[in-house]
Amino acid sequence: MKALRSREHRMLCTVLAEARMQAGLTQRGLAERLKRPHSYVAKIEGGERRIDVIEFAELARALRVDPLKLLGEVLSR
After folding, report:
1. Which residues neighbour 31 within 8 Å (Cβ) at sequence distance 6 or greater?
2. Comparing C-alpha atoms, which of 17, 18, 16, 37 is closest to residue 28?
3. Contact 66, 34 (CB under 8 A)
4. What is the pTM of this model?
5. How far is residue 48's CA from residue 42's CA, in Å, rounded to a whole number?
6. Contact 59/51 with Cβ under 8 angstroms?
7. Could you tell me which residues come within 8 angstroms of residue 9 by beta carbon, excluding any fewer than 6 positions away?
8. Number of alpha carbons in the 13 Å side-chain half-sphere of residue 71
9. How many CB atoms neighbour CB 63 within 10 A?
10. CA-closest candidate to residue 19, choices 37, 1, 42, 45
11. What is the rounded distance in angstroms from the CA atom of residue 3 to the CA atom of residue 64?
12. What is the pLDDT tens value at each position of the chain, 77 positions in all?
């Protein structure tokens, strides 16, 4: 199993945080859209929590970003 804080995982966290900020949302605002506690978003962006592909798609939808575009951003860095 890969380390929780691999380079790729850190990049995913960075891209998600940047997408949230570009959407004009705070962590709390994104959490509200997801109907999740603020800590859910904070832990994802902080690298403390991994997400699966379904959660990734939910995050992208909540950010109103195409999940494939967002994934492409992660993979291109």
Report:
1. 37, 38, 40, 41
2. 37
3. no
4. 0.90
5. 8
6. yes
7. 2, 3, 47, 50
8. 12
9. 19
10. 45
11. 29
12. 455 678 889 999 999 999 999 999 999 999 999 999 999 999 999 999 999 999 999 999 999 999 999 999 999 98
Show Cβ contacts of residue 6 under 8 Å, excluding neighbours closer than 6 positions: none
For the chain, what is the radius of gyration of the CA atoms? 11
C-alpha torsion sign, points 47, 31, 54, 58: negative
Give the separation between CA 53 and CA 67, rounded to whole angstroms.
Answer: 10
Q: Residue type at 70? A: L
Paired tokens of 60: 């992208």
Domain 7-72 sits in CATH 3.30.360.10: no
Domains of the chain by residue range: 7-72
30 residue type, one letter = L
* Residue 35 · residue 58 · CB < 8 Å: no
